[in-house]
Fold these 2 entries.
Entry 1:
Amino acid sequence: MAWLVVRLAISMSLLYTASAVFEDQVGKFDWRQQFIGKVRFALFDTHSQASKKLLLATDKNVFASLNSRTGDLFWRHVDKTGPEGHIDALLMYGQDAVVVVGNGRLLRSWETTVGGLKWETVLDTGSFQAAALVGVQDFVKYVAVLKKSAISLHDLSSGSEIWVENLPDSDSVQYQTIYSGGNGLVLVLGVVPNSHIVIVEYKIEDGEIMNKKSVEAAWMSSLESSCAVVSSGILLCVDQITQSLYTLPLQSAEQTEMRQIHLQTLDLEVVSGFRPVLTSTQPNPAQPPLSEFFLQLSPDHHILLQFKDGLIAPLRDFNPAYLAAFATSGERTVAAVMSPKNDTACSINLFSADTGRRHLDTTIIYHMDPNGGKPNRLYVHAFLKKDDSVGYRVMVQTEDLALTFLQQPGRVVWMREEALADVVTMEMVDLPFTGTQAELEGEFGKKAAIQDGLLPMVLKRLSSQFILLQAWLAHLWKLFYDARKPRSSVKNEVTIDVLSRDEFNLQKMMLMVTASGKLFGIDSKSGTILWKQYLENIQPNSVFKLIVQRTTAHFPHPPQCTLLIKNKDTGLGSLYVFNPIFGKKSQISVPALPRPILQTLLLPVIDQDYAKVLLLIDDQYKVTAFPSTKNVLQQLQDTASSIFFYLVDSSQGKLSGFRLRKDLSTELIWEVVIPTEVQKIVAVKGKRANEHVHSQGRVMGDRSVLYKYLNPNLLAVITESTDTHQERSFVGIILIDGVTGRIVHEAVQRKARGPVHFVHSENWVVYVYWNSKFRRNEFSVLELFEGAELYNSTVFSSLDRPHPPQVLQQSYIFPAPINTLEATLTEKGITSRHLLVGLPSGNILSLPKLFLDPRRPEMVSEQSREENLIPYAPEMPIREEWFINYNQTVSRVRGIYTAPSGLESTCLVVAYGLDIYQSRVFPSKQFDVLKDDYDYILISSVLFGLFFATMISKRLAEVKLLNRAWR
Amino acid sequence: MTAPGGGALATRGGATVRRMKWSLELSLGNSSRSRGDRQSKDGDVMYPVGYSDKPVPDTSVQEADRNLVEKRCWDVALGPLKQIPMNLFIMYMSGNTISIFPIMMVCMMAWRPIQALMSMSATFKLLESSSQQWLQGLVYLIGNLLGSALAVYKCQSMGLLPTHSSDWLAFIEPPQRLEIMGGGMVM
């Protein structure tokens, strides 16, 4: 019976919290964008003229097919992260794409039209070196995979292994490339650095070694980067030290050393410090390569050369030229060369590969984005036009990972911002008011207004009202104008100029910082990229911290954001200050940071321009203030004694707290050492600065109050044991006061290990760990209460807290692994909280905090029912209707960002990983908004009806009264 | 609906001569008027204005009625007290759950004594004729106060009074923080 009651209670509570998106709400306030990452291999499907496919393999271990007309994804396969899913090579023949995955672990063949897997073969162990298609008599039948110590040949149609052979002397020789010219042989080329080259010939049929020879090459260190095979099996190498080209016929028995051709004899010279690059092309794997090749002598100098009868002749010199690439259509091979036109544009031209003659009318103008990076890869898709001339399209990849697809004469067909596949951190900023709103604000906001006198004030008021009237008329006109057009064409473009805050502040500007150093400003409503800015010279492993110093609330001061970029290698940081709405770099002078920066601290103190003060702490614990005007320094001196900061050094296991001195130096006030031999600090989190807590306590069943312990200075420190044995490993959590260093609470979860995800908010901490004893994920929640009475209800000071809080804890089983955890956030904190759980499946689960309540009773009582507490059940439910992103899964979700909107019920959510998903959640449903299906017509008609009925009956009653008076 | 009929009569009567919508006729000569008809039915004698043919009661106070007045006044004064047992019974029957009927009853119970207390002066006027006016007034007051106390007790037992700290929870402002703190992992 009791169990029945419990079940009933659970189902009732579920009924209350269950909410999902209706079918007609799909895509109404949410959007998803899918990305693939930095392109490593790109191949155009050339086997039919009408094909629109573009195959891409990226450094994010994604293998995808794009529609080359629109840039949309046809299909996408996301492999495992890390080296296990690394795509080593991509080869394509006809409808099949062969991919080598995981350092030569797997060989897969994909059907390119629908993206289905045709076959998969597990390869022998050994690190991957090269792969090549092997053809016999003009027909490609095999794929050869070269590993460090073995070569194997596989059938292209079934993946079955034809043969596998061990390479001779593989411990001394580094085998690096495969070459096959369609003559029944597979050649494996290896090198012993600074000694000689080894060439081994295998027979395709049975893998028999036909020939093996070694050639002196004392100057050579690596084959891969400096050699290419041209013409009918001529190995061509370039060396920058001797400034020479070397040639060697691979299959001739008589020549036993490489022929040296000095570059000087060709009037060429390699720029010092630049490693020259040879680019050859083999249009058909069953045929030998072309005898023409590109030699790159400096970053912007290419030259097209031809190898003929043992001699090398220059065909055409491209100086300057950034990029060059070959492309083949049918029997004709062309070379596309990108050369600078002026400061902002490049021109791409097509040249005939065999003569070096320029094709007429083939120029594509590529306009470089002034806020973007330089182009660094060029992919060419050549095709034969109806008049048998060669047409082409190009895809340009730039340093900032933007893919631009162009066609003649320079029309951008589509563009993809692949930098967004790796978002590091983000913020959301309110949009500014419209011009008219700002005009009104400005009228009353300016300080000078008072001094203006009466008449100018009246004039100013009149003029602003006139502007308002004008804007209103323009708005009416636009409505009228749009109403005549068909609905589909009205879809207005979002641009920076039309951006303005909507009445509920639901539309915001998303600032995204990506690992490549590109910043984006994205409209949260539509997902349109409104501005982008590439920061050059960002080290790949830099650490970013984005800080909003001034919001849009202080018109006419523009909003201001600061990005702290810290170089991991040198430790030095730099500041980039910009306007988050327009993406423009601010003119404000930035303090020089000569010392490595350890941490930052954003103070609620504002300067006379309403910018919050940012403190930067360097490795000598000195503080730099930004902005550092006199006003700010004065304020800092006044408040210095109440400014504290903490630093966590995970390598030394040390937590330390500092207090600011008046001269902007600091003093150490506390230190907690967690011995690194036993456990290491994994993460530390305080509370979010913009979090509001509406209710200071919880109402008990007997109508008394249990006050929350709302310490704004509380830190949650997560530690993991260094011992990873499943019996001895543990996860620890320490709640520590960041001002005094007092340890408020400590808990240890035995037989548990990370990765730990946690959220610290209000008076609770929720964390997830792996229970290695029971092999399951567990949620644990800690809640802190002050007790039945508040110690001090007016001010909170960490220095005066004599009573420790009461701590309650409960744990639950969660039936899925998780990727990330975040809590919803609303304007005033009245709405109940939900936890947003990013699952590896790509779904985002909105889990009511109600379920994670340590006061959930094991036995139902009158009081607990009064409190609406759900009886304790160890299993946490996962319901499909709690997935806020229905089928719009977010691949490899890495972070979730929540921001409050102007509506108390609504919280904006952005989940990012490989994809970006934006939506709104309503943890307590939309209690402050009328429903979508609210029947305005019925209500208003009833209202009007009643109104008229009242009028008429009033009139009738008057007449009747008069008549009665006559009686 | 005699007025339209009268109007019709008037127009019929005045088919040739235009008449006023209404007029006062002091002479009894015209017997075609309906009002005149009614008067003429009562009697043929013409009474002066203000004459009433009903006898006027004797308003002088009789000595024998004194006790009766006294009794009546005590009835008024004890009215609220007599209500109390009834109220107690209703309270017991309605229970402590918060739903529309108990709330309505509580409202009635609270409102009636308050109303009575507000119209105290009118009640005093009523009791003016009694010799024990002040005592009766006091009893009346106590009765009403008891009635309202009963209503308050009912509210209390229903939990409608903000007597618990939880009732004031929403008004507690978040405490102001004195220290500013920040930081994090060493970047």
Note: The two ends of chain B are 96 Å apart (CA to CA).
Entry 2:
Amino acid sequence: MLESNKDSAKLDAMKRIVGMIAKGKNASELFPAVVKNVASKNIEIKKLVYVYLVRYAEEQQDLALLSISTFQRALKDPNQLIRASALRVLSSIRVPIIVPIMMLAIKEASADLSPYVRKNAAHAIQKLYSLDPDQKEMLIEVIEKLLKDKSTLVAGSVVMAFEEVCPDRIDLIHKNYRKLCNLLVDVEEWGQVVIIHMLTRYARTQFVSPWKEDDGLEDNEKNFYESDDEQKEKTDQKKKPYTMDPDHRLLIRNTKPLLQSRNAAVVMAVAQLYWHISPKSEAGIISKSLVRLLRSNREVQYIVLQNIATMSIQRKGLFEPYLKSFYVRSTDPTMIKTLKLEILTNLANEANISTLLREFQTYVKSQDKQFAAATIQTIGRCATNISEVTDTCLNGLVCLLSNRDEIVVAESVVVIKKLLQMQPVQHGEIIKHMAKLLDSITVPVARASILWLIGENCERVPVIAPDVLRKMAKSFTNEDDLVKLQILNLAAKLYLTNSKQTKLLTQYILNLGKYDQNYDIRDRTRFIRQLIVPNEKSGALSKYAKKIFLAQKPAPLLESPFKDRDHFQLGTLSHTLNTKATGYLELSNWPEVAPDPSVRDVEVVELAKELIPAGKAKKENPAKKFYSESEEEEESSDSSSDSESESGSESGEEGDSSEDSSEDSSSEQDSESGSESKGENKRTAKRNSKIKEESDSEDGEKENEKSKTSNSSNAESSSIEESSSDSESESESESEIESESRKVTKEREKKTKQDRNPLAKDISLLDLDDFNPVSTPVALPTPALSPSLIADLEGLNLSTSSSVISVSTPVFVPMKTHVLLHRMSGKGLAAHYFFPRQPCIFGDKMVSVQITLNNTTDQKIANIHIGEKKLPIGMQIHVFNPIESLEPEGSITVSMGIDFCDSTQTASFQLCTKDDCFNVNIQPPVGELLLPVAMSEKDFKKEQACLSALHLLSKPRNANRNE
Amino acid sequence: MIHSLFLINCSGDIFLEKHWKSVVSQSVCDYFFEAQEKAADVENVPPVISTPHHYLISIYRDKLFFVSVIQTEVPPLFVIEFLHRVADTFQDYFGECSEAAIKDNVVIVYELLEEMLDNGFPLATESNILKELIKPPTILRSVVNSITGSSNVGDTLPTGQLSNIPWRRAGVKYTNNEAYFDVVEEIDAIIDKSGATVFAEIQGVIDACIKLSGMPDLSLSFMNPRLLDDVSFHPCIRFKRWESERVLSFIPPDGNFRLISYRVSSQNLVAIPVYVKHSISFKENSSAGRFDITIGPKQNMGKTIEGITVTVHMPKVVLNMNLTPTQGSYTFDPVTKVLTWDVGKITPQKLPSLKGLVNLQSGAPKPEENPSLNIQFRIQQLAISGLKVNRLDMYGEKYKPFKGVKYVTKAGKFQVRT
């Protein structure tokens, strides 16, 4: 049929052949006929021929060569699928002669434009290496080239090739480390597993341990197993402050989203990465994901539970919250049940032991007897680990002795034996009870255990022990070897302690043992006889026989079988099998000093840029993974990170969030502020956070110093941003600042009045505004304040007295005159006075008064002057100069000054003429006593405060005398 | 990595083998058979077996063993996960992953395995890509193929393979554009003798069936996303969106797939929809026992509970059971000692019960533990956690898709200890 001209017939034939291959039948004799069809046009026939070739070419090397030229032609095919599959088949044909051709093809393919072909080239590397390891050097070159590849398609395969060919050439990774970390989320899941495992190893060689900083329980636990010297070393190192390498952080951060993968292998890989290289405090997040995997298939459960068991020994806290997830179901397979039990035991502590014991009670009754036995073991372990419950457990186990199932009873006996051994307390009752069990129990281990116990405690049960020995002697021949040995031991011990009763019995048993079929037992018999039975030949040893047999025996330690697994990398085959699998690569210990981190810098120019931000930028990858080209991504993250590194005072978190918002079009901040461009957004975000910070710092008055420094640093960075931010963000921040500054001025007014300290504060606040160009419009709402305020401040600086007041001219002078002397009473002389509200020229404390004198008579009035003054104490009058004469109908105005001493008391004096004297009074209204003054509201308030009780000044500022 | 693969059926026949590197003799499977013998039942065969030259990693699926041969260190989960993916693919292609189906389609199986692994390293595992490379068999296609002689192997590289969206085929076209989501929640619980809940937890998945043309970009939001405690995603979901907005944003694969699986934190009290009254007793020194169980609804949120099935693994000494159900039917398999009671719906007026006698092997001691009851049930139109889909938005395409969400609550590993 293969010779047929019809494709359908050929296809049919090929299908049958493939069917034979699948069943494992030999179809090699058809090789020549099949090989002819390798050039077939029909793609399905071609594929099936490929399948056949790959299977049998190794056996028929010469004939296989016939097909090579076809592949070589196909390697040049314009269709990338055909190129790739040709390379695949060519490299899969394990014929040593074509190694050079393969090498050439790989080299060519590694430079192919199609990433799919390059991926196949990476696979071909491994195949060629396994065929001819001599090509290693050449292949490493190709690997080096492919490692630089930026396609996510290639990354996984090439790292796989790296692991296979040259896992020790860690130097090849340096330059690509960051790229791999960043690409990780986009790589297909299988590649992720391989890359994560490789990076774990890499991190262990390149970074210093982040664990030293931790002072948690775990460390203490670790120290527990280490010698004192090491501990000292550790504490020494602890003193050094640890800062995590940014690349280390990058790896940990970029792998975190992968915990959410649907692929159990990826989750496990990330979990082991966290376990092995992250700071202990951060490893906690893996437990949740691992517990999720427990819902998966039986096989996955098995592996995951094994790993959890190892982890839970070292760090109980990690899985304690999930305790109930490890409860056993009756439908679980036994292997899963025992693993769960193991974990439950590891997690047991004083707090949860009672719940656990109740749960164990259910398990003990399980139909699955193997599991029930394991549970009893577990109870024993809990009893030894947690001293509070030892007695409870022991009692429970004793109850189990009356169980109907033999396996359960036997297991209980063994566990009780171990427990009793640990507790040298009297447990005679239990031993007696167990002695009785000897009649019924048939399981050898249990019988042996009971006998050993009785022998060990024979002095405590002096009555029973010989009786037991008697019974055993009867049945000796029918016992299991294990039991026989213990009978011999018991006999020996009893002979030493109670030789009177047991001498004959022992002799009898020793005789039986002498002729036993098992040479072990014969040996033991001979040995014991020589040791305990005194005769001439026996040397010094027999004296010590008692010491030998009844020495204190150390209690056995009940430990988890997973104790020793922790030196294997978690999640590996070696860990599962607990032996070193071929090709297992040890995780190295952390280096004492980190190797030069600069080796990972891709190019010198990019050094600064890449350090921190590359990692941050990449975190959002999963979100944008399929619509951005990876290369672009990298560049953009680099450039945008520039500003980041400049403003170094940023905390990591903040920088991160802003970074994200700038890059990720769909992030939260973006959606909040709508249509603005990303860059802007980022700045506003920063801005807002900063302003918040400011107001925070202002609240705390005591933190003057602090706020100053933080403000200034903030201002610096914000001013950088300010220059580039546009109106949109400005207006937003403006309003913020405005309200802010209003608050500031108010506060300022208060504070200046107090004393000098607030002044310093004030200045810092002003500074703050000055840094912000936007703050100029801020002053607008209260423009008049600023200049006077500064004057105030100056005044405060110069003197603290209240005489800062600048006297201003009166706005309004009332022309109202008061009668001083009526013309009727003054015999024609009339006098009026009014207050001109002028500063008095006679003295600054005097109020100026103008007096107008009128002569209403028809005669001259001569010598008008102030006569006797009757003034209250302290009041002074500066009189006017005497007027020599006043013409009839004439008037004259004079001014005088009176110091009223700020009171409204009447100033009485005599106005005298040549002939007469008239008594007159001047009583000033309150308003006239005041001095007009320009004063800020703040000053006013301050002054007001000074005045305390005397609220005479309760006039609005600026308009003082306008009563 | 994966050296060879053997498919073995329950009776121990190797019915398919595939080698990606040099041929490994079938005799390596003898180690596997040895382990299988040692293990009491198939469930207990250890997944990882070490032999002098190789390591065998196996999975058990649908009464078949997939045994892979490994030569060097590899993460075991990697292999296990891959083998399950292979089985899933078979299921997807042939409707079932059985010996017969695989034997019938051995060529396609071979082609698939060839594409899925190259040199033991997974190559294409996305079902969408594979289906473009190798067309799944249908009756129509096999007829057409036999007439025209065309093949069911694609001759161009699937675009998904190269793009950044490897899970989606290019050029998808539907006349009816539909997007369906099934929110399926399972209650895992252990109920103790007295009816108290020892442990309860809700495990949920959202399975999607998306038949949308072009490159739709979907976003699915929930009314109460905070409920979800731990989530694992299909690779198509943008993790960042979820982190920041709790919205599932994704370009879906074509066809059926599992969008997310989640766990609802066990801190929340889980409503247990059914209760079981039981009295099972075996009399001392007599070959009989009594068996009596009644099922009733409890916290069912006003929905009917249907599809109730009770499965009991009776102790080995049980010979036979004479029971009378008030509702449904029961079967007892005397070989496996499994009692199955198919109840159906619960009507609160008359609670279904199953009563009767148990015949025990005479002379054997009475079993000391009562068997635990495994219960299955289903509640339609209810997600027991209270999770609700808020809305589904589509971007990137012009047409209006038909959207639908279905809620189902089921019993997961629901066990009542008696």
Note: The radius of gyration of chain B is 25 Å.
